[in-house]
Amino acid sequence: MKKGQIQWFELPTENLERAKTFYETILDIEMQILEFGDFRMALFSDESCSGALVHHQEFYYPSDKGALMYLHVGNEMDAVLEKVNPNGGSIVIPKRLISEERGHMAIIQDTEGNRVGMMGG
């Protein structure tokens, strides 16, 4: 599984560039920005387009109370989590073992206020 790959998701942003920089830094990926008038997005994966950061002032609102989705981070969980706080996010639930078969999980809060889960080794 590739980093950031799930079916499809949209993470609301107040500042698309800030959020893009945060995720590019903690996941060590590059994101492509697409613009459709007032609607803008930054894709997590340019191959499968699994999801995107999205911005539209009248339609998307960041929240720490909405649905919770998890990004796959492979065996880089510790490296990803080490980058969260220095880049403006926070760790809500530190890395913990789910089971030997399923690996570890953690939950962060991004620069926009969204809760996002991380799963991997």
Q: Could you explain how this protein is built, in words?
A:
By secondary structure, this protein is of the alpha/beta class. The chain has a single domain (9-120), classed as Roll (2,3-Dihydroxybiphenyl 1,2-Dioxygenase, domain 1), CATH 3.10.180.10. It contains two helices and eight strands, in the order βαββββαβββ. It has helices at 16-27, 77-84; strands at 9-12, 32-36, 39-43, 51-55, 70-74, 90-99, 103-109, 115-120. It has a four-stranded mixed β-sheet with strand order 1-4-3-2, with helices on one face. A four-stranded mixed β-sheet has the order 5-8-7-6, covered by helices on one side. Strand 7 (103-109) and strand 8 (115-120) form a beta hairpin. It is globular and about 45 Å long. The two termini are 12 Å apart.
Structural shape: globular
CATH fold assignment: 2,3-Dihydroxybiphenyl 1,2-Dioxygenase, domain 1
In CATH terms, the superfamily is 2,3-Dihydroxybiphenyl 1,2-Dioxygenase, domain 1
**Tally of structural domains:** 1
Q: Helical residue percent?
A: 10-25%
CATH-scheme architecture: Roll
Radius of gyration: 14 Å
**Order of adjacent strands in the largest pleated sheet:** 1-4-3-2
Name of the CATH class: Alpha Beta
Given helix and strand content, the structural type is: alpha/beta
Major sheet description: 4 strands, mixed
Number of strands: 8
Total of helices? 2
Q: How much of the polypeptide forms β-strand, as a percent range?
A: 35-45%
What is the H/E order?
EHEEEEHEEE
Q: How would you state the average pLDDT, rounded?
A: 88
Q: Low-confidence segments, ≥5 residues, pLDDT <50? A: none
* Distance N to C terminus: 12 Å
